[in-house]
Write a structure and sequence with these properties.
The chain has 396 residues and is an alpha/beta fold. The protein contains 13 helices and 13 strands. The protein has two domains: 2-176, Response regulator (Rossmann fold, 3-Layer(aba) Sandwich), CATH 3.40.50; 204-394, Alpha-Beta Plaits (2-Layer Sandwich). It has helices at residues 2-9, 19-36, 59-71, 82-89, 108-117, 135-144, 156-197, 200-207, 230-234, 239-260, 285-307, 339-349, 360-366, and strands at residues 51-55, 75-79, 96-100, 126-131, 148-152, 214-228, 263-268, 271-276, 312-327, 333-337, 355-359, 370-380, 384-394. The longest helix has 42 residues, at 156-197. The chain starts with a helix and ends with a strand.
Length: 396
């Protein structure tokens, strides 16, 4: 009964028009249909309840629409003007807006433009309400972002169908947007995970479609560090305490590596391996590695005092050519190989606690920057007799 009463009184003052007026209006209506052709959603015949805002300066029209929408299960808000509506949408979220085209002070077109230019409201679907003689305005509104229109007087069945279609369309868009956000977050997590095990430049190459990553590095400096006395110190500690100490030390080293622009290659037990000039070459690789080594000694001394632990650090450096690349199919690893790597490892293992042990190659490069103390000749496995040095503090 209420539907029949609403149909009898709906916009009754605007229903009369003669045949001469109707012909150009139907031509305008065809333009609206053309504008909607690519955006008109396919109605899905199932009940979808939504939060709907009705904007109309005519109180009878507002109440009529509000009653109909409420009976259909929607939560309805009403606004008598464009300014009032903009204030409401600034505070509450809506699934759909029904907007009258002709209103005083601020037209429906102006309200629509404001809604579409605000990030928070740009995606809310808007259905324009109009009489047939307002088709030119409707076309502009469709082109400005309205998803549909309702002619006055409206039929309840048409009202339900278009609202249901708009809400269904919004639901699908919201789901698509949520899915795209999940994909973006998953990609971001994968990127973060890759960056935790591979250099940024290598990740960019892999994302760019590179197959095998294998590079010849003409010259770089390799740093090996080993925590001295770690095994006897941690022999009586719980597993969590052992991991806690290592995490404390290596996290401090990680921050220094990032600070100096070096590249952490891996940890090996209580050992720590760094490269400077890999994967991106740099002329000052030896100096950067030396400054990093001294900073690592200072950092470990601070941790030693903090923990009261009898641990020390032994560091070895060597510079030269190397091969770098990514290995593994399921578990990626970026690593470096070559004689330079082996000799740097020997410098660490032949060194002494709390000193930086370097080859002549490093000493010659840094002679004018750091104080270098000769150690003498050592028999180095795989390299024979080598003259080695200890790196002291920087001279400048």
């Amino acid at each position: 009964m209420l539907d029949r009463i609403d149909a009898l009184v709906a916009f009754s003052g605007e229903t009369s028009f003669d045949q001469a007026q109707a012909e150009p209006n139907f031509a305008d209506a065809s333009r609206v249909l053309d504008a909607l052709r690519h955006s008109q959603p396919v109605a899905v015949h199932r009940s979808i309840a939504g939060q709907i805002l009705v904007i109309d300066d005519n109180a009878s029209n507002r109440d009529l629409l509000a009653r109909q929408l409420t009976r259909d299960g929607h939560a309805v808000e009403i606004a008598a003007s464009g300014m009032e509506a903009l204030g409401i949408v600034a505070e509450r979220a809506f699934d759909l807006i029904l907007l009258d085209v002709l209103m005083p002070e601020m037209s429906g077109y102006e309200v629509l433009s404001r809604l579409k230019h605000e990030r928070r409201t740009a995606d809310i679907p808007v259905i324009m309400i109009s009489a047939l003689d307002e088709m030119e305005s409707i076309v502009h509104c469709i082109e400005a972002g309205a998803v549909d229109y309702l002619p006055k007087p409206f039929a309840p069945a048409l009202l339900r169908a278009r609202i249901r279609a708009s809400l269904e369309n919004k639901l699908l868009r919201d789901r698509e947007r949520a899915m795209m956000e999940e994909i973006r977050l998953a990609k971001e997590r994968n990127e973060t995970l890759l960056l935790s095990i591979l250099p940024k430049a290598v990740v960019e190459r892999i994302n760019g479609g590179a197959g095998m990553v294998a590079d010849h590095i003409p010259e770089a400096t390799i740093l090996f560090a080993d925590i001295v006395n770690f095994t006897p110190f941690t022999a009586k500690l719980s597993p969590s305490d052992v991991v806690g100490v290592l995490n404390r030390v290596f996290s401090a080293f990680d921050r220094l590596v990032e600070q100096f622009g070096a590249e952490k290659i891996k940890t090996i037990g209580d050992g720590y391996m760094v490269a400077v000039g890999i994967p991106e070459p740099r002329d000052d690789h030896a100096e950067v590695a030396a400054r990093l080594a001294l900073a690592m000694l200072t950092s470990l001394a601070d941790i030693r005092n903090e923990l009261g632990a009898p641990i020390q650090l032994r560091i070895g450096l060597h510079a030269g050519p190397a091969v770098a690349g990514v290995i593994g199919e399921r578990k990626f690893a970026y690593d470096i190989w070559g004689t330079t790597v082996n000799i740097a490892s020997r410098m660490e293992s032949h060194g002494i606690p709390d000193r930086v042990h370097v080859t002549k190659v490093i000493a010659d490069r840094l002679d004018n920057v750091f104080r270098i103390v000769p150690r003498g000749a050592l028999e180095v496995k795989g390299a024979g007799l080598m003259e080695t040095f200890f790196l002291e503090d920087a001279m400048k």
